[in-house]
Amino acid sequence: MDVTVLCDAVAVFPEPVETALPGWSAEHQEWTAANLPGNVAADGGWLLHFHCYLVTSERGAVLVDTGIGPAGSDAAQWLGTAGRLPTLLAAAGVGADDIDTVILTHVHLDHAGWNTTESGRPRFANATYVVQQAELDHLGDGPAYERYLKPIAAAGQLRAMRGSGALGDLRLLLTPGHTPGHQCVVTAVAILGGDVLVHPAQARWPELVYVYERDPAVAVTSRRDVLALAAATGLPLAAAHPHTALTGTASAQDLSNLHCRLGQR
Ligand SMILES: [Zn+2]
Ligand SMILES: [Zn+2]
């Protein structure tokens, strides 16, 4: 099994980091600068990566999250930059039609941006798109469903999972809090964490709450659970926004370039 990091975009969070993470302190800032300089902007702000992950094995090609999307997408407008996922997939030798499964960790604008084409068709024409039922219940028929999932459902390509469980040679973990139906993907190589943590300092301080977490207390519990799993299994935690993968204990010496070991393209 191979996991390839597809970095759809890099952008500075539009709000100050202490607004996004209300418990933010000088200690967090210093730790991040020392250990994850790739997540610190030139002005000291929060530099985010927007990672999708390509998982290939003999069972096929799985894409975890679809990034911020093309110029003009909601996330591209919010961040002031456009995604580049199709180019990265092509460089990895994978066409959109080769993707068998798209797993959405959750349905936020920066994780579902390339779900559909400009003409509103599923971009990954042969893929089953997998989301948690709890996420669908939360979205209802609101604007995020309308934009990112309705064309997928209309094409018969949407599959709802109910809780944690196996999916081929992968394992889905229901990790609510960030959103009600947030899920992580456990592979043989890494835990693909979506937004179970958004800032790398949350691997060191799981109790550090992100202001846009739907249920902060539940999010902290999910974060602790996934970090404990990473520590117990020795699998790196590759979330969507940290520059690099993290370890369960987030110790400095363990953060040595796991990003490249996972094979960044
Ligand atoms: Zn999110
Ligand atoms: Zn996100």
Automatic annotation (TrEMBL):
Coiled coil: none annotated. It comes from the Bacteria. Residues 49-241 form the Metallo-beta-lactamase domain. GO terms for molecular function: hydrolase activity; metal ion binding. InterPro entries: MBL_superfamily_lactonases, Metallo-B-lactamas, RibonucZ/Hydroxyglut_hydro. Keywords: Hydrolase, Metal-binding, Zinc. It holds the Pfam family Lactamase_B. Gene3D superfamilies: Ribonuclease Z/Hydroxyacylglutathione hydrolase-like. Belongs to the metallo-beta-lactamase superfamily. PANTHER family: QUORUM-QUENCHING LACTONASE YTNP-RELATED (PTHR42978:SF6), QUORUM-QUENCHING LACTONASE YTNP-RELATED-RELATED (PTHR42978). This is Glyoxylase-like metal-dependent hydrolase (Beta-lactamase superfamily II). The lineage of its organism: Bacteria, Bacillati, Actinomycetota, Actinomycetes, Propionibacteriales.
